[in-house]
């Protein structure tokens, strides 16, 4: 089936930056985008400026430079509005929504992505529309709205398959695979992650491949195949480091902690979770930081830390998570706290 799909490309790289590869490392992407931004400013080309600032925003987001990413997408939107280009406005809003989701601001993410969807529809930009709807689906899934997320992901998958778009197909497959995994259907999750990995590899989508490898590693470790899971994570980590994918790298480390924990290597798990916590906090990504801290606390409990101290820290972590914005993450912390209380009873 993978041969039906074309080579991956990055539609968010626009204007004179269109020729950048989807797999270009993001420090290089940022440098080239800043050069194009300066040129567009000098020539007073509002559309080119909007396009360059969009790429600056995307590169900064991927690099974990959150404040710069936030300023850049807003500046991109202002330039697009000055150019009266609806398509460029939609892409800027998409980027703002994606950044908000990365920062754990799910309500804001849905607002910006919803606006992006509406503007993309007006602009008749089918790719911006697809990216916006995919972003909405991912945000709903992360927030815990599984039924609505599955419906959107399935519609997106059907459309991506019809158009033969590698990145969108991979994205939709990975979203559905994660929903399957959360529902406990490991066979279905494996099939979707494996197909996503194959399509991504054949289409040259290294970003998508890194995420698919992480999903495959998760399923393998849940089946008890810890060594193979760690091997896949190491391969994904190489991709993340080569492309400067800061957020993806942090989630890779968090998953490595999960695998080590399931293998009962608690000391190494605790060290790995601590690395992930530090990485997430450095880029102001609260959901990832909370999940990594949860793993860290559970590992330290296994290593013999006094239960009252762990209970206190779990309650403190719970208090940092907004019930609406981080519903799924909050439930995971609450489940761990309930389990601890049962053991102490």
From TrEMBL:
It comes from the Bacteria. The keyword Coiled coil applies. InterPro entries: TPR-like_helical_dom_sf. Pfam families: TPR_12. Residues 23-53 form a coiled coil. Signal peptide: none annotated. Keywords: Coiled coil. This is Tetratricopeptide (TPR) repeat protein.
């Amino acid at each position: 089936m993978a041969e039906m799909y074309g080579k991956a490309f990055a539609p968010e790289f626009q204007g004179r930056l269109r020729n950048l590869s989807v797999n270009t490392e993001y420090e290089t992407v940022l440098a080239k985008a800043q050069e194009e931004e300066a040129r567009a400013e000098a020539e007073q080309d509002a559309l080119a400026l909007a396009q360059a600032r969009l790429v600056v925003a995307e590169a900064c987001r991927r690099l974990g430079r959150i404040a710069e990413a936030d300023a850049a997408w807003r500046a991109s939107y202002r330039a697009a509005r000055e150019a009266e280009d609806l398509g460029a406005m939609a892409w800027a809003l998409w980027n703002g929504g994606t950044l908000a989701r990365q920062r754990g601001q799910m309500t804001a993410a849905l607002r910006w992505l919803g606006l992006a969807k509406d503007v993309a529809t007006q602009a008749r930009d089918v790719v911006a529309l697809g990216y916006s709807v995919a972003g909405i689906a991912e945000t709903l899934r992360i927030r815990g709205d599984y039924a609505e997320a599955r419906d959107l992901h399935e519609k997106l998958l059907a459309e991506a398959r019809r158009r033969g778009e590698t990145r969108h197909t991979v994205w939709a497959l990975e979203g559905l695979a994660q929903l399957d995994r959360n529902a406990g259907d490991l066979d279905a999750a494996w099939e979707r992650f494996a197909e996503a990995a194959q399509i991504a590899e054949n289409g040259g989508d290294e970003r998508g491949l890194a995420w698919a490898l992480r999903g495959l590693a998760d399923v393998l470790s849940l089946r008890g195949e810890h060594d193979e899971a760690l091997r896949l994570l190491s391969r994904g980590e190489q991709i993340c480091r080569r492309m400067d994918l800061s957020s993806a790298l942090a989630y890779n480390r968090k998953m490595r902690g999960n695998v080590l924990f399931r293998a009962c290597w608690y000391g190494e798990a605790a060290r790995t979770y601590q690395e992930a916590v530090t990485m997430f906090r450095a880029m102001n990504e609260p959901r990832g930081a909370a999940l990594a801290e949860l793993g860290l606390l559970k590992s330290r409990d296994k290593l013999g830390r006094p239960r009252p101290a762990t209970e206190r820290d779990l309650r403190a972590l719970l208090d940092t998570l907004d019930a609406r914005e981080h519903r799924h993450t909050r439930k995971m912390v609450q489940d761990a706290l309930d389990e601890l209380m049962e053991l102490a009873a």
